[in-house]
Amino acid sequence: MSAERPFLLPCIAGATGTGKSEVASALADVLPVGIINADSRQVYADFPLITAQPGRAEREGCPHRLYGFLPTREKLGAGAYARPAEECIGEERAAGRVPILVGGTGLYFRALLEGIAPIPGTPAEISARILERCRNEGSRKLHAQLEGLDPDYARKIHPHDRQRVCRALEVIEHTGMRFSWWHARPVPPKPFRALKIGLALPPPELEKRLERRIDGMLAGGAVEEARAALERCPDPHAPGWSGIGCAELFRHLSGELSLEQCRALWLKNTRAYAKRQNTWFSADKEIRFFRPEAKGEIADFVAAALEAFQS
Questions:
Q1: How many CB atoms lie within 10 A of CB 5?
Q2: Judging by beta carbons within 10 Å of its beta carbon (0-12, 13-18, 19+), is residue 67 exposed, middle or buried?
Q3: How confident is the model over 111-151, as pLDDT tens digits?
Q4: How many angstroms separate the CA atoms of 50 and 270, rounded?
């Protein structure tokens, strides 16, 4: 993706349940847009309902990219996400549409907007083998190994941070270079400037919305969706099952939780996740926050910003 002159890239971010997809669809009513997913759970093909992916009516209004394409057994880290997201941005611009990032995964936004070290992906067999070692031996033992191979990076992460410990060891084995060496590589400049829009609600309002949404998912077939996914992928350690809602439903279908217990834990974990998301996004002083129902105001804000940037 390249451009001689920087362009403005609208981004709609916020905690789960704040209505990001609805706001993006409202923008599609007034602007020629292409919506690009920036949510690490909505990439999974097996869980369109549980991860609140845009529905058929929303998708008919404009192109929706990077939704529901990844198998449950695969993972999509921030670095791996940024590459196809950049391709989608370029393709939407080439088609004469305004690309808009929409989602709640802060690391996805950071990887795309700020750039991250150009670390190569690792073969699936290496990832699977190191993850299996972590399950059998524990992350602390693998962290001790990492201390001997890359002490600079090992000092930055907790011994219990299984994901980062495994990722570092995967990269070292695959490339022969330390993870810290890759992080020191220069990051190419981006051809765009982000227009950051945040959606937020007071916690009591958001919690009520989250409860209603989970109940709606359960009434709409979330258990059946999870059961079908379980038939295709019965591995509880598969990346797709780690998402909130998916993990609790897996435990319900495995007989560990009653449906009532599943719902309560799902709601509890969703509230905690929304709180972490709010903390992440509120720390970004470039974000202008709106209430989700301010769709007209948001559309005017985006249109005015695009016009001013192009003039």
A1: 7
A2: buried
A3: 999 887 778 878 888 988 999 999 999 999 999 999 999 99
A4: 12
> How crowded is residue 73: how many other Cβ atoms within 10 Å of its Cβ?
16
- Helix (H), strand (E) at residue 36: strand 33-37
In the 8-state DSSP scheme, what is residue 240? G
pTM: 0.83
Between CA 146 and CA 152 the distance in angstroms is 9
Query: Which residue reads 């669809």 in tokens?
Result: 25
Q: How far apart are CA 150 and CA 161, in angstroms?
A: 15
| Structural element, H or E, at residue 73 | none
Distance CA 243, CA 250 (A): 10
Domains of the chain: 7-116+188-310 (3.40.50.300), 124-183 (1.10.20.140)
Cβ neighbour number for residue 156 with a 10 Å cutoff: 13
**Single-letter amino acid, residue 139:** S
Beta bridge mates, 14: 199
Neighbouring residues of 136: CB distance < 8 A, sequence distance ≥ 6: none
SS3 37: strand
